[in-house]
Write a structure and sequence with these properties.
The complex is a heterodimer of chains A (401) and B (379). Chain A is an alpha/beta fold and 401 residues long. Chain A is 31% helix and 21% strand. Chain A has an 8-stranded mixed sheet, with helices on one face. In chain A, helix 5 runs parallel beside helix 13. The two termini of chain A are 44 Å apart. In chain B, strand 6, helix 7 and strand 7 form a beta-alpha-beta unit. The longest helix of chain B has 16 residues. Chain B starts with a helix and ends in a 5-residue tail after the last strand. Classes of the chains: A alpha/beta (401), B alpha/beta (379). Chains A and B meet through helix 2 and helix 3 of A and helix 2, helix 3 and helix 6 of B.
Chain lengths: 401, 379
């Protein structure tokens, strides 16, 4: 049993299901009093209903008229059972008093993340052990590991000329992955932390001059930095990430073949960790190149026995450039035609969508299927993690399901 | 008897009165914030007047609350959504009627219907070290910084509760120790337009969220400049207080912060560009000034301009500008004419809220406003 001390302003005892986020919420404009839905755009709880739930957030933001929004929720019987905050403010307190919504203050909300159900009494919050989140998400066999590749353009502002991390988008993904209880290995791309310097300085040409080696060094440091930022956000959202340096985990021969240095991924997963890899520059023999997140995804899927790789990207799946229609299934037989059409589209430092699909097709020969899913859409992320086929599936067989 | 004991007396009184209800709300706020003391206030300023903020449920709550209730201190009111005397044609009758009803309910409690977000220009000027319960964020910052009065950023309802009780929850900016500046921000160039002060507030709020800045500026700020700075700093996440060397009353009452930042006028020009949209293709553009509400006698020298426009100000100040005034209204909560897509303004606060609501906004200097202005009062 977990007990957390709290200040319960109303003193009323409540118990119920928890909806929680580390992102602050604006009650005015961010909630719909007539339905009880959270409508704040991009909020991890967007689309969730407040009614009969215990809402756990760090603080409320926004206008000084937020109290009227809370009161209106209460009039329409859509108010949460209680609001738990770590940084209280007078606007929320006013609204809770007006709408008779129990307001509870704790010093830190992190212990409440991931709990299903809690009871709040006069001075403490109680979670019974049945409801405590297991450190190992329940998956029946080790075969059900999923490799998730998160596009660099999704978690960084890729157009930015300086490295710019998108913590909000990363938090949304982390939260949904945590909630899905899927046991996974994460691989993320570099986005504005790597691609722009690599392209701007033609780093792939004559990579051994002193000047270019200095740039490579900077790029490698940036990748470490990005991975640390990602892991920090994932921890806040409930996951237990284990950052793995791909250039230390793998070695590569002259032909680009990868060798694993023996870190046991299965063991790491069984202990409840989420290994986090990332695309990174790599020295192979005399050459310097990029070990892309896409390649890493394939290798770690093979090592862990994963049966699927899900790519979360900033695009709405793959679209046929001629017809403009979404491509639902890519197989070795329809690929050659599509490849010709797609080759004209723009490329980034790691080859864009064509290389992504090629790598996923390669994975099909090991019995691993691929999905390319719009990572900006919480519903699609959710569906893909639940095993539903996403927007574009890459598979060996010809049937669409 | 201490202020807190006097406050307790209200909680021992008639449990069916609105004053008891008000005191219970304040008590709840104190508990949530971990405060135990209450201070006597000399005035209150109430936000949450717009029909669009309150909704029908809010109006009926307010109506019940107002029965038999009078405010105990001078209390002034924020603007509503629009000018109820001259409502725009596209606003439905029912919304105009609701807005009139809200104003009347506040009036019945003894609240002065100043309908302005600049109460310090309309008969509610706070004095040095007075405690207040104000809820309009730009006015809170002005009262703390320029007047040297003391108020936290209250919600509209908590300000009303304080007005009815005569007390507010202590702590925060009511205490000396929380008024200490946290960063010195030096501007190396002279600046001469309220918009520059607005941009200075954006810089401070964005880069030092929640920290009280001590500005070192080589020019002197007038009322319009102080208003612009007060409105923008809080909108962009800053503290609801600032100090300026030799210009604000408490500038030398505290230690000079060791944390420092320096910027130039060019940095502010860059910010102006960043916060401005290109209005190129927009057919229906209006020019707007008066956020926060403009001061009396502050003529903007209207001349022939290109786009239609209006000014927001307190009804009491509407004389010199008529007929281009939106008296007692607020552009940030109003429903502008459906066809309006582009707005020209000298207020970064207005720009923030209007851009959030999907309008394209171009920032111009206050001195340029008159050149863009075609005063037919259409909005």
């Amino acid at each position: 049993m977990l007990k957390i001390p709290c200040t319960n302003i109303s003193g009323v005892t409540v118990s119920g299901r928890v909806i929680a986020s580390t992102v602050s919420l604006s009650f005015y404009g961010g909630t719909d009093p007539l339905t009880g839905n959270i409508i704040q755009r991009g909020h991890p709880l967007e689309g969730t209903n407040l009614r009969d739930k215990i809402l756990v957030i760090p603080s409320a933001t926004g206008s000084t008229v937020g109290n009227w929004a809370l009161y209106r929720l209460s009039v329409h019987k859509n108010a949460p059972l209680a609001i738990v905050l770590s940084t209280p403010d007078s606007v929320t307190a006013t609204g809770c008093m007006m709408g008779s919504i129990p307001l509870v203050v704790v010093s830190d909300i992190s212990a409440l993340l991931g709990l299903e159900k809690i009871e709040i009494n006069n001075n403490e919050i109680i979670a019974y052990s049945d409801d405590l989140p297991s450190s190992i998400p329940p998956r029946s066999t080790p075969g059900e590991v999923v490799v998730i590749k998160i596009g660099g353009s999704l978690i960084t502002h890729k157009e930015s000329t300086v490295p710019a991390f998108d913590a909000e988008q990363t938090a949304i993904l982390g939260r949904i992955i945590f909630d899905s209880k899927v046991r996974c290995i994460l691989v993320h791309g570099a986005g504005s932390y790597g691609h722009s310097p690599v392209k701007a300085h033609n780093l792939l040409e004559n990579p051994n001059s002193r000047e270019k080696r200095i740039f490579w060094s900077e790029v490698v440091s940036l990748q470490y930095e990005l991975s640390n930022l990602v892991c920090e956000v994932l921890r806040r959202e409930g996951l237990i990430p284990w950052p793995v340096q791909p250039d230390a985990f793998f070695s590569m021969d002259e032909n680009g073949n990868l060798f694993n240095h023996g870190l046991n991924l299965i063991n790491m997963l069984e202990k409840g960790y989420t290994p986090v890899f990332y695309g990174v520059p790599m020295l192979f023999g005399s050459r310097t190149g990029i070990l892309s997140g896409d390649d890493i995804a394939l290798q770690v899927a093979r090592l862990s026995g994963a049966k699927s790789i899900i790519h979360f990207t900033k695009n709405d799946g793959v679209t046929d450039p001629t017809t403009g229609n979404p491509v639902k299934l890519i197989t070795p037989s329809n690929w050659p035609t599509l490849e010709v059409k797609l080759k004209d589209t723009s490329k980034d430092a790691t080859g864009g969508i064509v290389n992504k699909i090629k790598t996923l097709l390669e994975a099909t020969s090991f019995g691993i299927s691929g999905l390319i899913v719009d990572g900006r859409n919480p519903q699609k992320i959710d569906e893909a993690l639940a095993g539903n086929s996403g927007y574009t599936r890459i598979d060996k067989c010809l049937s669409e399901n | 008897m201490s202020s807190s004991e006097e406050f307790q007396e209200i909680l021992n009184g008639d449990k069916n009165s609105s004053r008891f209800k008000a005191a219970s709300i304040l008590q709840g706020i104190a508990q949530a914030l971990g405060e135990h003391d209450f201070v006597k206030i000399s005035s209150a300023q109430i936000s949450g007047v717009s029909v669009y903020n309150l909704g029908p449920e809010g109006v009926s709550y307010l109506k019940d609350f107002a029965v038999g209730t009078k405010v105990r201190v001078k209390t002034t009111l924020n603007p509503g959504a629009f000018d109820i005397e001259n409502p725009p044609n596209h606003i439905p009758e029912s919304e105009v009627a609701s807005q009139k009803e809200i104003n009347a309910i506040y009036g019945s409690m003894g609240v002065s219907l100043t309908l302005t977000c600049s109460p310090y220009l309309s008969g509610n000027l706070p004095l040095y070290q007075e405690h207040l319960a104000w809820s309009e964020s730009s006015a809170v910052t002005f009262a703390n910084s320029v007047c040297g009065a003391r108020t936290n950023r209250e919600s509209g309802m908590s300000a009303l509760c304080s007005a009815v009780c005569g007390f507010t929850v202590s702590g925060g900016l009511h205490m000396d120790e929380n008024r200490q500046p946290g960063v010195t921000i030096r501007l190396s160039d002279e600046i001469d337009d309220p918009l520059y002060y607005g941009l200075l507030g954006v810089y401070a709020g964005r880069n030092f969220p929640g920290l009280i800045p001590l500005f070192d500026i080589p020019s002197r700020a007038g009322i319009n400049e102080m208003q612009a700075l007060s409105a923008s700093i809080i909108t962009w996440g800053g503290a609801s207080m600032f100090h300026i060397f030799h210009q604000t009353p408490e500038w030398n009452a505290y230690q000079i912060p060791t944390k420092q930042a320096t910027l130039t006028r060019k940095d502010l020009d860059d910010l102006k560009r960043e916060l401005s949209d290109d209005l190129g293709d927009h057919q229906k553009i209006i020019t707007f000034t008066g956020c926060p509400h403009r001061s009396a006698g502050d003529s903007i020298g209207l001349s022939e301009g290109k786009s239609s426009g209006f000014i927001t100000a307190a009804p009491a100040l509407s004389g010199p500008y008529s007929p281009v005034i939106m008296a007692g209204g607020c552009v940030a909560v109003s429903k502008l004419k459906p066809l309006v897509t582009g707005i020209i303004t000298d207020s970064v606060k207005a720009a923030f809220y209007l851009r959030n609501r999907g309008y394209k906004v171009k920032l111009v200097f206050s001195s340029e406003i008159k050149n863009n202005f075609c005063p037919n009062g259409e909005y």
